[in-house]
Amino acid sequence: MIIATIIGMAIVTMVPRFLPAFIMNGLTLKPWVNRWLNAIPFAALGALIFPGIMYVIDDRPLIGILGGVVAAVIALFNVNVIFAVIGSILTVYLLTM
Q1: pTM, whole model, 2 decimals?
Q2: How far apart are CA 58 and CA 52, in angstroms?
Q3: Nearest 5°: CA angle at 93, between 90 and 97?
Q4: Which of 9, 16, 33, 86 is the most buried (most CB within 10 A)?
Q5: What's the CA gap between 52 and 7, in Å, rounded?
Q6: CA 32, CA 50: separation in Å to the nearest integer?
């Protein structure tokens, strides 16, 4: 019974993930819709990352904000994302010393 429940939950989870891929395969969208859909991952990342920036160190949110600003500035130069991550980590580390 447990195996059947796990398989059932897997199917229910997979259907909404795979169905749009098959439906959208035959459709062509307007360019503004494509631009809007391409922006969603960035908005989701911002919503996930920003609260974490505020609480890097309790009672000192400015340190996290400065680390985020350093990461954003590095990212503006279109370098590999690992450099933005390392830059923000080093900034937070140096400010907490």
Answers
A1: 0.59
A2: 11
A3: 140
A4: 86
A5: 35
A6: 27
* Residue 95 C-alpha from the chain's centroid: 25
Q: What's the CA gap between 69 and 60, in Å, rounded?
A: 15
Angle, vertex CA 54, rays to CA 97 and CA 64, nearest 5: 30
Q: Can you tell me the distance from the alpha carbon of 22 to that of 40, in angstroms, rounded to the nearest whole number?
A: 20
Domain ranges of the chain: 1-40, 56-96
pLDDT tens-place string over residues 25-81: 777 889 998 888 888 887 888 888 888 898 888 889 999 999 999 999 999 999 998
What are the pLDDT digits (tens) for 75-94? 999 999 899 999 999 999 99
